[in-house]
């Protein structure tokens, strides 16, 4: 009897999750009508969380998200795409902007935990890799990735809804105050977020990272990008009782290992003819605007265009790391600009958080 009840309960939970996924795909036209107000609410909410978390932990302001991290130097190598990719049409599409000419460029990177609090590394969380590439004589280009292929928050309205809940006096009060459709949206975000956070503990240099959101690639193409750890990246055991074990392991790796970790960097094209959601083809706008919808690699593969390699003994001092920042909007070109609702929302939120953190 107990087993039967468990199976029934599990089935109901799975059906609920499936319903949330299906029912909460938003009306993009309706979402766009509230986007300006949603972004303003996001900015206010991020600043509230940033101040509240700092006060709660009795520390200065940190980043509004990805509060805990470690910085280092790296090298970004662009491969000779035209020589390595046999398909001339594909090679020409890939070899644009930064990837048009083979070369090696200095890079600065930061590995981080996604939470807005500075937590013990054993706490379940999404991990992140952000980096900046500075070509000689060219414009700096910034990249931001998480170790999950999608963003759990679908769009600016879902982001504002989540902010409303987490800044309420209690979460229950926040959820209760939402309209029914927003309750569904928040439930979906919560389910996706919980699923993303609970993962195996791996060293930063052993994880794969995805942009989660799309970017321009030249005048007509749209891409996502991914950093895949090279086979055999060195990593020691993570110490369960060390609250900073991820950071400490990366520093140990930089200081003592003779071989440095690297990540193959790949681009994934938006292909509306091959990609499907619930068995149906969708418009380009659908894929661009819905950050929680995965671009399946079985339908749209990644193509390797370069490699990011850590530099030994290159940890950046913590104070310098805290003053440094990534901005994928500010540090982009007209042919590499971020796209989609989440990208439009995060720029003003990150800028406001940075201004508060740095006292500017």
List the helices and strands and how they pair.
Layout: H1 2-23, H2 28-33, H3 35-56, E1 69-78, H4 81-84, H5 88-94, E2 103-113, E3 127-133, E4 141-146, H6 156-166, H7 171-176, H8 180-197, E5 209-210, E6 215-217, E7 221-229, H9 245-256, E8 262-269, E9 276-277, E10 280-281, H10 284-289, E11 302-310, H11 318-323, H12 341-358
Antiparallel strand pairs: 1-2, 1-11, 2-3, 3-4, 5-7, 6-7, 7-8, 8-11, 9-10
Helix pairs in contact: 1-8, 3-6, 3-12, 6-8
Calculate Rg over CA atoms: 21 Å
- What characteristic shape results from the CA principal axes? globular
Low-confidence stretches at least 5 residues in length (pLDDT < 50)? none
What helical percentage do the residues reach?
25-40%
What's the CATH H-level homologous superfamily?
Catalase core domain
Number of domains: 1
CATH class annotation: Mainly Beta
Largest sheet: 9 strands, antiparallel
Q: Looking at CATH, which topology would you report? A: Catalase HpII,  Chain A, domain 1
Average of the residue pLDDT scores: 91
Structural class: alpha+beta
How many beta strands in the DSSP annotation? 11
**CATH architecture grouping:** Beta Barrel
β content, as a range?
15-25%
Structural features, described:
The chain has 360 residues and is of the alpha+beta class. It has one domain (2-358): Beta Barrel (Catalase HpII,  Chain A, domain 1). The protein has helices spanning 2-23, 28-33, 35-56, 81-84, 88-94, 156-166, 171-176, 180-197, 245-256, 284-289, 318-323, 341-358, and strands spanning 69-78, 103-113, 127-133, 141-146, 209-210, 215-217, 221-229, 262-269, 276-277, 280-281, 302-310. The model has no long low-confidence stretch (mean pLDDT 91).
């Amino acid at each position: 009897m107990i087993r039967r009840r468990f199976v029934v309960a599990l089935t109901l939970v799975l059906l609920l999750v499936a319903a949330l996924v299906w029912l909460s795909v938003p009306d993009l036209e309706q979402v766009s009508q509230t986007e300006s107000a949603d972004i303003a609410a996001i900015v206010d909410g991020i600043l509230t969380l940033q101040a509240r978390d700092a006060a709660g932990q009795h520390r200065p302001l940190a980043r509004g998200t990805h509060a805990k991290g470690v910085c280092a130097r790296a090298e970004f190598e662009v491969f000779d795409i035209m020589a390595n990719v046999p398909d001339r049409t594909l090679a020409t599409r890939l070899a644009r902007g930064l990837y048009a000419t083979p070369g090696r460029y200095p890079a600065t990177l930061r590995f981080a935990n996604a939470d807005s609090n500075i937590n013990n590394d054993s706490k379940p969380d999404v991990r992140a890799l952000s980096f900046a590439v500075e070509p000689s004589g060219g414009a700096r280009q910034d990249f931001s990735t998480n170790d999950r292929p999608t963003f759990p928050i679908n769009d600016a309205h879902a982001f504002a809804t989540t902010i409303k809940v987490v800044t309420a006096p209690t979460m229950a009060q926040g959820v209760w105050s939402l309209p029914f459709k927003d309750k569904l949206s928040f439930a979906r975000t919560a389910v996706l977020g919980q699923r993303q956070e609970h993962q195996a503990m791996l060293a930063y240099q052993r994880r794969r990272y995805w942009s989660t959101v799309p970017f321009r690639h030249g005048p007509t193409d749209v891409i996502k990008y991914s950093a895949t750890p090279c086979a055999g990246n060195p990593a020691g055991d993570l110490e369960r009782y060390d609250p900073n074990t991820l950071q400490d392991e990366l520093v140990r790796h930089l200081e003592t290992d003779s071989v440095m970790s690297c990540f193959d960097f790949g681009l994934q094209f938006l292909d509306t003819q091959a990609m499907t959601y619930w068995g149906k083809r969708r418009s380009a706008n659908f894929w661009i605007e819905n950050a929680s919808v995965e671009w399946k690699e079985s339908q749209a593969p990644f193509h390797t265009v370069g490699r990011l390699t850590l530099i030994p003994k290159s940890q950046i001092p913590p104070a310098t790391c805290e003053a440094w920042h990534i901005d994928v909007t500010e540090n982009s070109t007209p042919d590499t600009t971020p796209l989609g609702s989440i990208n439009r929302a995060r720029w003003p939120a990150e800028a406001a958080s940075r201004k508060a953190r740095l006292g500017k």
